[in-house]
Design brief:
The structure is a homotetramer of 340-residue chains.
Chain A lengths: L4 E2 L4 E5 L6 E7 L3 E4 L2 H11 L16 E5 L1 E2 L2 E3 L3 E6 L21 H8 L15 H18 L4 E9 L2 E2 L4 H6 L12 H17 L5 E8 L13 H10 L4 E6 L10 H4 L11 E2 L2 E2 L4 E7 L6 H6 L7 H22 L7
Antiparallel strand pairs in A: 1-2, 2-3, 3-8, 4-7, 5-8, 6-7, 9-10, 9-11, 11-15, 12-15, 13-14
Family (chains A, B, C, D): Belongs to the chorismate synthase family.
Cofactor (chains A, B, C, D): FMNH2
Protein name (chains A, B, C, D): Chorismate synthase
Chain lengths: 340, 340, 340, 340
């Protein structure tokens, strides 16, 4: 079965325990001839890495990717692409105590119920470190998409951290460099407030939730497959597969619930649709958001361990990676829509 | 490919155009020996049927299901189960005009972009009538689950219609018969207000959105498959594959975003988790909600056609069906978790 | 799971019990815009039909196909294509005795072991009637292939019945009309001998095996997917999924075993490769054979029932259908080989 | 897509180019709690390794397996198991010339046609070295099967090399240690003749084909899934996915073609069925054979390179591995056959 696989055509298989030998990914279904951009791969990994700032965990992930197969002379071969990242920092003794008492909010007990035999060190495979595989695969998806559709762009950012909520519009967001803001909340004042909040939280063993919002522009019309791989359905599946997520909405999202039809349905290009109608992309910009709960490492656990007081800033590149994966899958899939 | 399939183990394939010969479903992966409850099948179909009340479309769907294969002597054979429903009422002349101008908010244009050759009559396969296949398959999933886990219960209901929002708690909801309320909003006063609102909307060519909430109790712990078929991920995929949906949340949902970790993570049984932690069911009750936008048949289209001013009441059995499908899939899948 | 499905891109799901309501197929992954050739569908079904001659079973299959979905205005819609054939002749009383004693050589007992609850009437789904679904789906695969590759041709024929073995070469075979020979063994003398042999067998309750050989010409080079969906691997899987088959070989086949490499490997176009090298088609004609054991209905069973003394003549269109299915799958799949 | 994957439940994904960084496998769907037998893994790899004797290629494969994920404290975790083997001996300069002229009988040209961009060094992924991944995965399948079904045994052996054909019966084969015979043809005289033949061939740049036969005993009845994952269909697919294979037969195999039904169908336990009836295992011993053509490295290529004059001896553990994979897949799959 494909519990650890994502995608139908451009398919990734993720493997590796947090404190095992290595994490990695195998990508099946990437066509031959994609120019492999190693710099992009490393850059994306750096963006996901812990220890980037005062508001993220100090866990030291060296994270040097090794491309094991599927790439030759700078281009993909059409064969499976395996990329591996060794686990450099395996301070598993920090986690010995977990073996005996499950951490509140974590998955220790549910995994134990399911599998009986588990790797208790740092959550094993339920650790956030698993998202590294998504960033690796998402980077290859990005290479594929950008070669086929050079105009296609994806931009994720923190749109809310705790009560601090961004109200900037899409125009402005496309102009800023999200990474210049420590919390990836691209607004100077809100970012500063968020930094203060999270630094205090780190000391106090407190944690906060937030929202990652994503814009995509120049997406081709007609992506998505009715009726069970609608673009919105695959996006929702992708996003809710990320740890700590609790909600997904696109376009007018949950607010659509309160609208009158005559106001909502103004024209076929309206932003309320979030770029998706009938489950298929319309060619208008995509707009969707994912909600994250407060990280579950709180109180003493948080102080001792090496955890983020808020996962949202580091979730931004993960959400981007999953977006590229959905895009790559459907861009290739659309080659099969019509006889010619 | 499996664009029209849902599920990994208990798998349904949906087929049929709204104004074609018939709609139907093939279920692969249903084990042999499930007692087939034809009454349940018909009852569930009746609940989804249009024309049930003054607030739903008058389209006449006879909807007599024919079990074509996979069932013998009242029990499933372990072979594919095909169930067919003829399209009795094919007034396609009503839809002739659609061929030339896409209806606002509908999928007519995105489907045309994708497939070039489309069945323009009543949306073809992008019609809400497609959800019939989900109810058929969901009913078989329900038969399977209830035979294996007699205590397992699923209850969906309208929790919001336009601005009318329910605040009753789970205890109360389990006691009521949702179908006694025309809008399936199980609260006498709110239901009456909603009926009035929707009857007026029908006359005025107006439409409204709303929310369907679902509770599940006595669900086994450990359902869901890390990391890409987490229970929440498959639920989100299932729900967002339904037409007109715009958001999904579970447990504390979007509200989790604003919480402090120390308040959020009280204990492993907390309702904020919505019965899912680490992507796996905890054994606590499930609680999730799906948002629907206002139906896109408004103004002149709505007056002429036979459409619902609010899809939420009729979406309730569809959400239930998708929930049973996710449950059946993961109940069977969990047989593969451990060596014994 | 996909026990009853064949194909990865162009995918068929087969359903239906021999003496149930109907047999049928759902095809997922057929692109939009394929011109639907109803005549071809009926013609192919006629070729598979029992009761065509003195050497086939007298079972009366009316076999009128109903295209339930996926086709509109003479072309495919890109949505699932369901085709249904009612079971007209359900003389199940003939089979009542089977409930108690499994028929030698049949699958009655193995199915019973597996599923416990089985449809004992005429083998249920293990009946040869199941191949009807393959012919339905194969016909659509043929429509697709012939529209994309008008030169592509498939020709299957009986190359051996009992000891009667054909030695004609490919050139000659392409010229004859296989269906003009009752046993589909396209050689006047051998065909006559085979007819006599099988007519006697029918009276005597005897049965015989044989071989179906297939030539394909003008097949594009590069079809097949390394390493587990090599063209030869998928062909073997397709052919061995047909009931009563016991062997598969292509090119020099089993004779290759005895060859010296220096004689075998003469040039890249050699017929010994059967049009497949490295698992991929070379562009040279395909050539493969499938062996069938004697039908298991012998002695009293055969005299009473309505069975073929040799399944090979009627297997010819089934082998062709499976060949078209493998071709359609890989022709579409090859769209994903390269970035452009 | 799953071009490089095998299995539906117990699923392996193979990756790696012959002269790239490493070869490896990811196994998805192995349940938690399988005792991991590292010795068995290494032993099986040793059996496949080149350079074992005077009749195999001298290529030096160090082949030290690294278990990267999915195993902890000596048992599987239910998470993906990644096993990696570095490519120690990358004398790719030997292969530089291949870039310009495709080797007769190899897949160089068909891969080039398909993918345009290929790794020309030693066949890249079309090299026989790819079978290493099968042996890795097959070993884990064996661990799983033997823990669940301790009596289950698989024995493959060379049953023919060139014209040298074994006629020993199953009883005798089960008693011998196949690996005591250099050619794995377990008959002293024939083995000696085969050794002489192959040593001469090595000098002369000649090559030969042969047959690998496999017996399986104590296999449970009812394995296999109708109708497209019949046990015979999956076996055929598995075997024909191995390079250089040209035929597959089971039970009476191709000889069945010539039999009379009244002689063939003696009783339900007859050896002619090869342990499979109706596509499902009967519980009787399995018996099937795979034909291999002469290796394509002949004449000057063979003298210069490091290749086997006959692949059959080294194919034996690969056929065994594929057999274990099919068994593991269907043993797990059968958990889903019935409601209880």
């Amino acid at each position: 079965m494909s519990a650890n696989s994502f995608g139908q055509i451009f398919k990734m298989i993720s493997f590796g325990e947090s404190h095992g030998v290595a994490l990695g990914v195998v990508i099946e279904g990437c066509p031959a001839g994609v120019v492999f951009d190693q710099d992009l791969l490393v850059r994306n990994m750096q963006r996901r890495r812990p220890g980037q700032s005062s508001v993220t965990t100090a866990r030291n992930e060296a994270d040097a990717p090794e491309v094991v197969s599927g790439v030759f002379d700078g281009k993909t071969l059409g064969t499976p692409i395996c990329i591996l990242v060794r686990n450099a920092d395996q301070r598993s003794q920090d986690y010995e105590s977990i073996q005996h008492s499950p951490r509140i909010g974590h998955a220790d007990d549910t995994w134990k119920t399911k599998f009986q035999h588990v790797d208790h060190r740092g959550g094993g495979r339920s650790s956030g470190r698993e998202t590294l595989a998504r960033v690796l695969a998402g980077s290859v998806a990005q290479m594929l998409c950008q070669q086929l559709l050079p105009q296609l762009q994806v931009k994720s950012f923190s749109s809310q951290i705790a009560h601090l909520q961004l109200t900037e519009n899409a125009e402005q967001i496309w102009k800023v460099n999200v990474d210049e803001y420590i919390t990836r909340l691209p607004h100077e004042k809100l970012n500063n407030e968020a930094v203060q909040l999270l630094e205090s939280a780190k000391v106090a063993g407190e944690s906060y939730g937030g929202t990652v919002r994503t814009f995509v522009k120049n997406v081709p019309a007609g992506l998505g497959q009715p009726v069970f791989h609608k673009f919105k359905s695959d996006l929702a599946s992708a996003m809710l597969s990320i740890g700590a997520t609790t909600s997904f909405e696109f376009g007018a999202g949950h607010e659509a619930v309160r609208s009158k039809g005559t106001e909502f349905h103004q024209d076929l290009q309206s932003a309320v649709y979030g770029g998706i109608r009938g489950g298929l992309t319309t060619g208008e910009p995509l707009d969707f958001s994912v909600g994250f709960k407060p990280t579950s490492s709180i109180k003493d656990t948080a102080k001792k361990g090496r955890h983020d007081p808020c996962i949202v800033p580091r979730a931004v590149p993960v959400v981007e990676a999953m977006t590229w994966l959905v895009l790559a899958d459907h861009v290739l899939w659309s080659r099969l829509d019509r006889i010619r």
